Amino acid sequence: MTDSIETQYIKGKRFFEAMAKAGRYPACSPGFISGLCAGGHRFATVQFCGREYCPDCGRDGSPIHQRRVNSFFNRSKDWAQLGYLVITIPQELRYLFLNPENLRDLRKRILRRLKERFKISQGLARWHWFGDCEPCGGAGCAICAGTGSGKNFNPHLNILFDGGFIADLDQFLKPIKKIMQSFFNMILWKEVYFLRQKIRSESNPDESLSMYDLVMQKIETIKTDDLVINYSYCSDPKNRMNKIKYVTRSTFRLWDDNIKKALNNFRNSVVWGWKKSEVQADETGHEKYCPICQQSGINKVISWTNLIRHSNNYKLSYHDITEKNGTVRRWTEFSQSVKIDYGGNDKSGTNNKSGIDGYRKRFPVNISALFL
Question: 3-state DSSP call for residue 151?
Fold first, then answer.
């Protein structure tokens, strides 16, 4: 898993770096947001749709993926070790988890137990919707259209937290499995009540009766010993990074209209243990304070504009600048085309006496936030 995700992540990252260097943007990008601090430093961050099924945003190493990875790695860098729980939904119950309420409710119950009983104060929980393509093992092949994604809906909850070796793992997992069993029984009994009403109202309820018997069998067969939860941990920085890359990747890469509609507007990732303002800043990808001013020990707020759509009037072009000490910094040039009227006043509100019908204002813009 770790070698595969590291390789795919690097390939994806290089793909987008080449795209930026060529002055191109992903097809889903509506534009960019420009920022300015009181110290005169300008910034720009390209916006993306962020959808898992987007061919660009769903790729390993995409700007959205990089943002998730960098955000959570920086948060968890002070942890002694990284614990990793994977909670799998039984195959016969997966159809019930096309309901976002069930996804949300089960996650909430499990995280509450981790926080209250085991005193786990910080972590990340994220659903994966599909497994890897079996023929290629997630590397990408003709069967999965190069995405590495499996075709069958297979929801499993990934949880990263500050944890290491657990001496009695069975005892640790036992209360979590009890929560799962109780929750599965609850949603199955809801199905039973629904089917009972349906049977009473139908003139020919044979199909509903068969479904009723099947659901009752499922209730009888759900046992905690059969529920699958995997746990691992690591302390090596490289392995920790690869686990974070794996958990934060997109898995919904093969289009399925029914699943897309079912999961529409569902918040897939949740974190706990940090201030709300810190979480919101990470989700937007916008830095609150100017990083250049912070190097001098000064916190100056960056004022971000509204979305500026890609057009002929606003362009971002990429290039590298080598400083005197040999350091190569990535910068872009934010160019604004301005049309001049006959009175010599341009539409930006500044006065131009050149008499030229059009020109470009050019501002050096730090590209650090562009594809991170």
Answer: strand
Query: CB neighbours of 63 closer than 8 A, spacing ≥ 6?
Result: 16, 26, 46, 48, 57, 370, 371, 372
CA–CA gap between residue 48 and residue 26 (Å, rounded): 8
Burial class (CB in 10 A: 0-12, 13-18, 19+), 75: buried
Q: Which two tokens stand for residue 192?
A: 């039973």
Instruction: Give the torsion through C-alpha atoms of 161, 165, 169, 173, to 10 deg.
Output: 0
Buried b (16+ CB within 10 A) or exposed e, 82-111: bbbbebbbeeebeebbeeeebbeebbeebb
Give yes or no: residues 205 and 327 share one domain.
no
* 82-134 pLDDT tens trace: 999 999 999 999 999 999 999 999 999 999 999 999 999 999 999 999 988 88
Count of domains observed in the chain: 2
Distance CA(279)–CA(288), nearest Å, equals: 12
Q: Does residue 24 lie in a domain region?
A: no
| Pair 85, 204 in one domain | yes
Contact 32, 311 (CB under 8 A): no
Alpha-carbon distance of 60 to 68, in angstroms, equals 11
Q: Is residue 18 part of a domain?
A: no
Residue 113 resides in a domain: yes
| Whether residue 236 is found in the same domain as residue 320 | no
Q: Note the pLDDT of residue 47.
A: 83
- For the stretch 276-297, pLDDT in tens is 655 444 445 566 788 778 888 8
Give pLDDT tens digits for 179-208. Answer: 999 999 999 999 999 999 999 998 888 889
* Cβ–Cβ < 8 Å for 34, 335: no
- Model confidence at 333: pLDDT above 80: no
Question: Which residues share a beta bridge with 318?
Answer: 332
State the first-to-last Cα distance of the chain, in angstroms, to the nearest integer. Answer: 23
